[in-house]
C-alpha cells in the first residue's frame, strides 16, 4: 500500500474535490454497491468515484464545497451550516462541568470498551470475562499537562486488553467480531480528507475559518469561534488542521461500529447497545469537538460499514461463533446491577432526535430502496424472518425521505435500526412468519394492506395501535394482542393455536375459532374481551391469567368469566 504524505493527501483531496464529490462520469456509470466495494475505503482513494465511503457521504455536497486548502471551503447551504455551528455554540455554552468531564472520558477511552455499557447488568462480568480494561476512569479537573491516551492499568490481569477485550479470552470470538467490524477498511479518515470540513472550534457561525494570529496558553492557534472546547480536551486537539477534519466524526463511526458488532453477538441487548452508541456519540458535540453534521455522517458511515463487513463471506463463521459464545455467556451469567438502558421508551426519546439533529427535511416522501446487504443488520435480532422479510422491516420503519445528508447515495442514513428492531412498521404484503421455540415483540404501530400469518411453537406479541387491513391467522404458537387494536383490521382466524389478549380488544372483521384453539385473557375481564363484526366457533380452552375460565359467545363478541374453584 502506498504511504501518502500529508501534503500529497491534501493535494489529492483538492484536485478531486474542488468540483462536486460525485463526478458526471460516476453518476452515469454503474458503481458497485457499498457492500461490494467497501474495501475501497482507503486513504489512497479520496474521491467518490474511487472510494465507496466517500461516495455514500457525498450528500454533504448539498451543504459544503471543499476548497483548494483545508481552510477555504465554502458553504453551499448557508442556513443549514449556520444552524449546525450555532447548535455547537449553544451546547458548549450551556455545558455543565459534569458533562465536560464525561466528554473527556468518552474522547480518551477506547470506543469498543465504552460501548460495553450497553450490555447493562452484564457489562461488568463481560469486561471481567473478556479481559477488557481501560486506564481512563476519571477526568482531570482542568487541562492536563500533556496529551493522554488510553492504557492498560497497572495491576490488570494477565492478557488484559484495551477495547472489546482479548481475542484469547473466553469471549474471544465476540472480541474478534468487534475488532473485525472495526478493522482495516473502517476508518473515517479518507472521508475526512476528502471533505475537509473543519472542526467546529475552528469555525465562525458562518462556517468560515478566521485565524486571529494569536496563540492560546497551550500553543494552539486561536480561531474566531464561539464554540468552546471542554477544558480537559484543550491539549488533546489535533495539531495539523488538514489532517483533522470534522466530517465525519471518527469517534461516532467507531462507537456505532462497535455497538452494531456487539448487537450482532448480543441481539438480546440490540436497542440498548444502539442507544448507548447514540448517547456516547452525542458527547462529541458537548465536547466542542464535532458538529451535528459530523455525528450524523459518522453514524451513516458506521451503518454501511457494519453491514458490509457482516455480509462478507470471509466473516460468516466468525459471526456464528461469536453469537454462540455470547448466548452461552448470557445463559451462564445472570445480569447483576443497574441497567441504565432498561426503559425502552426513554431510549427511543434519546435516539429519535439524534437521527437527524438540525438537518431540515425538504421535498416529498418516497419509499426507501433498502441498500444492498442492509438486512444483515437484523440477522440475529430477527433470525426467524427471511432476508427479504428483514428488508421489508427496514423499508417499513425507515426515516422519511427529504433529508439531504440521509438521502445520499444508497440512503444508508434513512435506516432507523432502533425502530426496525421492533418489527414491521407496515405489512406491504401478507407476512407469513414461523416462530419455533422463541418469543418476540413487535412494538410498532403497523399499517398496510397486508395481513399476518403466525406458525410454529413460539410467542409473538403485538403492542401497537395497529391499522393493517389484511387480517390475522394464528395457525401455531401464541399471538399476544397486548392492546385493544393489536389485531388491526380485517378478519382473524385461530386454529389449533393460542390467542392471548387484553380485555376490550376490537376486531373490524370476523373472528373464526377453529378446533383446539385457546384463549387466555391478560388481567381481570370487565365486559367483552373481544368485539367483532361476527364470531364463529368456540375456544377449546379458556383461561384468565392461567386460571380456568369459560367463554360466553355472542354473535359479535366474546366475554369471559372465571370458573369458581
| Number of separate helices | 17
Tally of DSSP β-strands: 22
What number is the mean pLDDT?
92
Give the overall shape: elongated
* Radius of gyration (Å): 26 Å
- Give the strand order of the largest sheet, numbering strands 1, 2, ... along the chain: 8-10-12-14-17-20-21-22-18-15
Q: Could you give a short account of the major beta sheet?
A: 10 strands, mixed
Catalogue the unreliable spans.
Answer: 1-20
What is the helix content?
A: 25-40%
Computed structural class: alpha/beta
Features:
10-stranded mixed β-sheet; alpha/beta; 565 residues; single chain; 17 helices; disordered N terminus
Question: Would you write up a description of this structure?
Answer:
The structure is a single chain. The protein is 31% helix and 14% strand. By secondary structure, it is an alpha/beta fold. The strands form 5 sheets. The protein has a 10-stranded mixed sheet with strand order 8-10-12-14-17-20-21-22-18-15, with no helix packed on it. Strands 7-9-11-13-16-19 form a 6-stranded parallel sheet, with no helix packed on it. β1 (64-65) and β2 form a beta hairpin. α11 packs parallel to α13 (292-311) and α12 packs across α15 (344-351). The termini are far apart. The model is unreliable at 1-20 (pLDDT under 50).
Sequence-ordered SSE layout with sheet pairings:
Layout: H1 6-17, H2 24-28, H3 34-37, H4 52-56, E1 64-65, E2 74-75, H5 78-94, H6 97-108, H7 111-115, H8 123-130, E3 132-133, E4 161-162, H9 172-181, H10 189-195, E5 211-215, E6 221-223, H11 250-265, H12 270-286, H13 292-311, H14 316-332, H15 344-351, H16 387-396, H17 417-420, E7 431-435, E8 439-442, E9 452-456, E10 459-462, E11 472-474, E12 478-481, E13 492-494, E14 498-501, E15 505-506, E16 510-513, E17 518-521, E18 530-531, E19 534-536, E20 541-544, E21 547-553, E22 557-562
Amino acid at each position: 500500500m502506498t504511504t501518502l504524505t500529508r501534503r500529497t493527501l491534501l493535494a489529492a483531496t483538492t484536485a478531486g474535490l474542488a468540483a462536486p464529490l460525485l463526478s458526471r462520469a460516476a453518476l452515469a456509470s454503474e458503481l458497485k454497491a457499498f457492500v461490494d466495494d467497501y474495501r475501497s475505503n482507503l486513504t489512497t482513494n479520496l474521491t467518490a468515484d474511487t472510494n465507496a465511503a466517500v461516495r455514500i457521504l457525498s450528500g454533504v455536497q448539498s451543504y459544503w464545497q471543499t476548497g483548494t486548502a483545508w481552510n477555504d471551503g465554502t458553504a453551499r447551504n448557508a442556513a443549514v451550516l449556520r444552524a449546525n455551528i450555532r447548535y455547537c455554540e449553544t451546547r458548549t455554552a450551556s455545558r455543565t462541568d459534569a458533562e465536560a468531564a464525561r466528554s473527556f472520558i468518552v474522547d480518551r477511552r477506547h470506543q469498543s470498551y465504552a460501548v460495553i455499557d450497553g450490555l447493562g447488568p452484564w457489562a461488568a462480568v463481560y469486561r471481567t470475562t473478556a479481559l477488557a480494561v481501560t486506564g481512563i476512569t476519571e477526568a482531570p479537573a482542568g487541562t492536563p499537562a500533556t496529551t493522554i491516551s488510553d492504557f492498560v492499568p497497572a495491576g490488570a490481569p494477565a492478557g488484559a486488553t484495551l477495547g472489546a477485550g482479548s481475542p484469547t479470552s473466553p469471549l474471544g470470538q465476540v472480541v474478534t467480531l468487534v475488532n473485525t467490524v472495526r478493522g482495516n477498511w473502517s476508518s473515517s479518515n479518507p472521508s475526512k480528507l476528502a471533505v475537509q470540513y473543519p472542526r467546529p472550534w475552528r469555525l465562525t457561525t458562518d462556517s468560515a475559518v478566521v485565524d486571529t494570529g494569536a496563540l492560546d496558553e497551550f500553543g494552539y492557534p486561536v480561531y474566531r469561534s464561539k464554540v468552546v472546547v471542554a477544558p480537559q480536551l484543550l491539549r488533546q486537539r489535533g495539531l495539523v488542521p488538514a489532517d483533522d477534519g470534522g466530517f465525519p466524526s471518527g469517534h461516532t463511526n467507531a462507537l456505532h461500529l462497535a455497538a452494531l458488532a456487539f448487537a450482532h453477538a448480543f441481539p438480546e441487548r440490540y436497542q440498548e447497545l444502539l442507544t448507548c452508541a447514540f448517547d456516547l456519540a452525542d458527547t462529541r458535540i458537548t465536547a466542542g469537538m464535532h458538529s451535528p453534521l459530523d455525528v450524523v455522517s459518522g453514524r451513516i458511515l458506521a451503518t454501511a460499514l457494519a453491514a458490509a463487513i457482516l455480509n462478507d463471506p470471509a466473516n460468516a463463521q466468525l459471526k456464528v461463533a461469536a453469537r454462540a459464545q455470547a448466548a452461552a455467556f448470557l445463559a451462564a451469567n445472570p445480569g447483576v446491577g443497574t441497567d441504565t438502558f432498561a426503559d425502552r421508551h426513554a431510549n427511543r426519546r434519546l435516539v429519535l432526535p439524534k437521527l437527524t439533529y438540525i438537518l431540515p427535511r425538504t421535498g416529498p416522501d418516497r419509499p426507501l430502496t433498502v441498500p444492498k446487504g442492509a438486512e444483515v443488520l437484523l440477522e440475529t435480532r430477527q433470525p426467524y424472518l427471511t432476508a427479504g422479510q428483514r428488508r421489508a422491516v427496514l423499508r417499513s420503519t425507515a426515516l422519511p425521505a427529504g433529508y439531504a445528508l440521509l438521502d445520499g447515495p444508497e440512503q444508508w442514513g434513512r435506516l432507523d435500526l432502533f425502530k426496525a428492531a421492533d418489527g414491521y412498521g407496515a405489512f406491504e404484503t401478507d407476512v407469513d412468519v414461523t416462530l419455533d421455540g422463541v418469543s418476540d415483540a413487535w412494538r410498532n404501530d403497523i399499517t398496510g394492506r397486508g395481513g399476518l400469518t403466525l406458525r410454529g411453537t413460539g410467542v409473538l406479541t403485538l403492542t401497537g395501535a395497529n391499522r393493517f387491513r389484511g387480517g390475522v391467522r394464528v395457525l401455531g404458537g401464541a399471538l399476544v394482542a397486548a392492546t385493544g387494536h393489536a389485531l388491526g383490521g380485517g378478519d382473524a382466524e385461530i386454529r389449533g393455536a393460542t390467542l392471548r389478549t387484553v380485555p376490550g380488544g376490537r376486531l373490524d372483521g370476523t373472528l373464526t375459532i377453529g378446533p383446539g384453539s385457546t384463549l387466555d385473557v391478560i388481567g381481570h375481564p370487565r365486559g367483552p374481551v373481544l368485539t367483532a363484526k361476527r364470531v364463529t366457533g368456540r375456544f377449546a380452552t379458556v383461561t384468565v391469567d392461567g386460571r380456568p375460565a369459560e367463554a360466553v359467545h355472542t354473535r359479535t363478541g366474546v366475554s369471559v368469566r372465571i370458573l369458581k374453584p
